[in-house]
Amino acid sequence: MSHNGLVSESVVAALNMELISYVVVRHTFRGEDSLIDNSGNEIELNIHKGLEGLGLLVGLRLSERLLYRQPSFGEWTPPGVSQFVARQFWKTAFGKRIDRLMHMNDIYFCLIDKNFRWLQGFPKMRGERIVSTTVLSPYGYSEETVAEDEGASPRTERLGSVPIHKDVLIYTVGILKGLIRVMYPTGSIEIHANLNNENETQFVLDFRSPTA
User: If phi over 0 gives left and psi between -120 and 50 gives alpha, with beta otherwise, what is residue 95?
Assistant: First the structure.
């Protein structure tokens, strides 16, 4: 990899962390200064909504750059979408392909990245603890899902307005949502991410139809 590539990826990582920090600070101060009695979980929920929404916009803009030369535009299948994300998108965003891609019946895919670039510099996970985002649908952020799937981080995990692991994961999931919404606009998909104590970040693309 060229030095220019390393510099470019470092700059991109730094800019994305600035964006994440801005969203966290804005919603933290807005919640604390509000005349309404906001609980810690409400502040966290607003932070995560803001991060997902910002990531969605970034993903939509990235799709313009990455997809305009694709001959299969408009004819994507779940395996094709997952392969594109694991190869072209990851190479563009992080300077490498995904470390491992696992799948089940070509409708459930797990992209595994060891030492995820945007989490470098964050504390390592200890013990059996796992950081997980909520399951995010392509049609919006569900507050009910947030409550059920630990979407709102306890305020005790956050030091002031400093970003935490989950902030980065939710922002990245938002980017994937924006990109995949363009590639696979009418199909069913749910996306979530996990970080384990082996420093593996897993991004799950679930194309299974929701059960009634």
Answer: left
Whether 3 maps to a domain, the answer reads: no
Q: Reduced to 3 states, what is the DSSP secondary structure of residue 44?
A: helix
- Per DSSP, the three-state class of 210 is coil
Least Cα distance to 202 among 123, 55, 102 occurs for: 102
Question: Which residues lie below 8 Å from residue 210, measured CB to CB, with a gap of 6+?
Answer: 188, 190
Assign residue 115 the CATH number of its domain.
3.30.1380.20
Q: pLDDT, tens digit, for every residue of 108-161?
A: 999 999 999 999 889 888 777 789 986 444 434 333 333 333 444 445 567 667
- Could you tell me the pTM of the whole model? 0.81
Burial class (CB in 10 A: 0-12, 13-18, 19+), 124: exposed
In a domain, 152, yes or no: no
